[in-house]
Each structure stands twice: as C-alpha cells, then as structure tokens.
C-alpha cells in the first residue's frame, strides 16, 4: 500500500522534462526538494521543482545533503543552504546526514542546525540513515523533526518494515522504488509516522487531491491486480474512478478502488515504462 498523506522527496535525479507536474502534483500531499549536495554542488533542478510544485499548491519543504568537514564548514553549508532556498519560503528545512564528513558529527550537525535557526529558518529537521543513527549519535532532541529511512522489500509499497534504530521518528522514507502517475521512473516515498500534518507541511489540507482518475479507454475492474483476475465490471471511457492507492504488477500500474461493500477492485491505469532493467 501507499499510505496517505503521500510525501515525495525529489532531486535532480528526477529530470523536469520527464515529469508531468500536473499529474504528479495530484498524487502527493507534500514534497521535500533537494537544494544542494554540500556547499559546492547545487542541485540542477531544485528551483524548477520548487516552483512547479508550489504553483500547483503542494506544500514544499527543502533538504540539503550534509558534507561539512569542520564546525566552520558546517556553518558555511547552512548559510549556503539558507541563501539558496529562503526566497521560496519552504515549510520545513531538513539536514540529510548520510555520510561521516567529520569526526564529531554530533557537534557539527548541531552547528549546522543552530546556524539555520539563527538565519531565520523556523523549523529544522534531520534525516539520518537508520544504520548510522547510533554511530553519529546526533542530538535529535534539538531538531524539530526526525526523518529516517527503512525500505524492507523496497517494492514501491509500504510493507510494514519500520526503522529499528529509534522509534522517535516523525517521517519514514519507506521506498526508493515508488511509482506515481506523472513520472515513469522510481521515486522516494514517505509517510507521516508521528506528529501533526500541519506542523510539518502547513495548513494545506491533506486531502487536497481528489485522487480521481478519468479513463481514456474502457478498462475492466478486477478482483486483484492481475489480468487473470476475475472481472467485476467494465468501466467505460470517460468514467472517473476514485483511486485509493496504486501498486505495480504484471507491467502495469494498478489503481485500487474501494467498493460499496467494503471490498476492493483493481484497474490497470496504464503500462509501467521503466528507464532501465533489473540485472
């Protein structure tokens, strides 16, 4: 399943000319955009991503991969991050801590956090890899939010695999293989595990998106996400279907529809066109 509200994090790996922002924006409730990889590398498309999502009403946060090698360097990265993103008024600022760039990561990340706050960032959180959580020993109590990844099967769905390093996380990145309408490649998807939506993404309603899908051709609604599954009904071209969640099976993106009797039906929304192959 893909839990709601849907939180996407995105970077230059998702190229704008390969994204249908109108479609993708309707599938998500919030987005976190990468701004930089250390001070010296600026994400090529962060401004485009932010503008495109913001003009479609998607609450937008930002993140920066942390690479500071000294306390001074950490503060400089914070300054560069703030300078590059402040004009967009992001709803939240996140440090992405995935490598040991200095010996005292605890102290260095605290300098980074404090500098962002001093500059004017109201809410600052930290993303830290599950397997590095103990080693880095960050003082997460000083941050406004904690974001931790654990993928489990990493099949594009949330399968119940949760972070093991701590239970104090607010946002859980549960896959790097997510699939949503509007982009044919893989996406990082996240769920809100703890806390209030409004605190992390502002007052925009979680249910902003109608999640309705208008059929451009007739499609069978089936009992399972398979062409071999029993057909429940033939849906006509032009019908609008309320999609609860999506999943990948047999080369198709399938939408899950809740029926009046409480059971679910599945319809193929389109073919999955990958940008590569598994080897």
UniProtKB/TrEMBL annotation:
It comes from the Bacteria. Pfam families: Glyco_hydro_25. One of its GO terms (biological process) is peptidoglycan catabolic process. CDD domains: GH25_PlyB-like. SUPFAM superfamilies: (Trans)glycosidases (SSF51445). GO terms for molecular function: lysozyme activity. Belongs to the glycosyl hydrolase 25 family. This is SH3b domain-containing protein.
